[in-house]
Amino acid sequence: MVWYPAMQDGSETPPLSGPFPTVVLAHGFAMGPADYEGLAEGLVEEGYVFVSLGTELGFAANHAMYGLDLAFVSNAVADGDVSGLLENVLNGRVAIAGHSMGGGAAWLAAAEQPVIDAVVALAPAETSPSALAVGSEMSVPLLVISGSGDAVTPPSTQHTPLYESAVNSPCRAFVSIADGGHCGFADPGTLCDFGELGFNGLPHAEQLEMTLGVTIPWLDAFLKDDLNGLDALDAFAAEVNVNLELACALQVEEVVSDKLDVHPNPGQGGGYIRNASMQQANLEVYNARGQRVVAGLELAPGQRVELRLSPGMHIAKLRIGAEVEAATWIIL
Question: 80, 11 in Cβ contact below 8 A?
Fold first, then answer.
């Protein structure tokens, strides 16, 4: 299912001209794509297209295939492989999101190295194959939102370990909503609520309001390159008294490699990056707040690109097939 900014309410109505960034969501266990209308409408109002996957329904979900579905759709959006009403309406900027089982699937999708800008995980759950085991493959900014009252996927055994596994994310945020539950990210009255009978914490509406309040500035920072996005996230968290952990120091495990050449380092205002491998590669550069400042440059074997960057620490990432080489680059 797809929600998008349109000239008027209704099905198949003409979209606004855009172009718009996209959020691709994987639903939770035994749930479906229509169970997140509140979340969808809140994001659409802020200028996002919302795509809710309709695969792996029922009680025998294949987690591995779910991750592949999420990566496939995200890549299609990023590559502009979209027809119909939304042709030429999307700008190729994509975040993958997931709730519960779908949150864990976001880790599996990230391991496929799709062309995405960020990940949003709502009460993420461990999967089989293990999402935790591929946490180091999460190489994009990651936001995890957790309800402190979640007894379905307890934060201490699910949300926190998954968050901590993403050691190579250039910018991580963990939001804990006091008295929030597992199902408050979805619409009320879904099958999810039957698994949380007796829950007496935050009502759905309040939890959704807080979720949108932290998700929108996060997406603005990484899908719209809003330099004030993370400040807005911090301000909202302080205003509504949610617990926010924000780590954007680019603590990336650097790989010593002869395939990625960054010179000079430190550089006075910039320098060049060279693909020293024997294969075609894709270059991305992130600043100290985890924002992507160079996006998706294709470099042929031996090709180099001259770059001018703002002063500070940056991370250069060269994607060569399924392999990612990373290097810290200091700009003076």
Answer: no
Determine the Cα–Cα distance for residues 286 and 294; give it in Å rounded to an integer.
7
105, 246, 71, 252: which is closest to 166 by C-alpha?
A: 252
H or E element in which residue 40 lies: helix 37-44
SS3 18: coil
Residue 28 phi/psi, 5° resolution? -85, 175
| Higher-confidence position of 56 and 254 | 56
What contacts 320, CB < 8 A, 6 or more positions away?
A: 259, 275, 277, 279, 280, 281
- What token pair was written down for 6? 């349109």
41-84 pLDDT per residue, tens: 999 999 999 999 999 998 999 999 999 999 999 999 998 898 88
Q: Output the furthest CA–CA distance in the chain (Å, rounded).
A: 61
Tell whether omega for the bond before 124 is within 30 degrees of 0, i.e. cis.
no
Residue 321, sorted as left (phi over 0), alpha (psi -120 to 50) or beta, turns out to be left
Distance CA 35, CA 26 (A): 11
- This prediction's pTM: 0.79
Q: Any idea what DSSP says for residue 113?
A: -
Our measurement of the distance from residue 156's CA atom to the centroid of its chain's CA atoms, rounded to an integer in Å, reads 21
In terms of CATH, what superfamily is 260-331? Immunoglobulins (2.60.40.10)
d(CA 206, CA 262): 47
In degrees, to the nearest 5, what angle opens at C-alpha 40 toward C-alphas 34 and 45?
150
Q: What is the CA radius of gyration of the chain?
A: 20
- pLDDT for 233 equals 95
What confidence score (pLDDT) does residue 249 get? 56
Can you tell me which residue has the tokens 């509406």?
205
Q: Where are the domains of the chain?
A: 2-247, 260-331
122 residue type, one letter: L
Whole-number Å distance between alpha carbons of 160 and 124: 9
> CATH top-level class for 2-247?
alpha beta
How many other C-beta atoms lie within 10 A of the C-beta of residue 140? Answer: 26
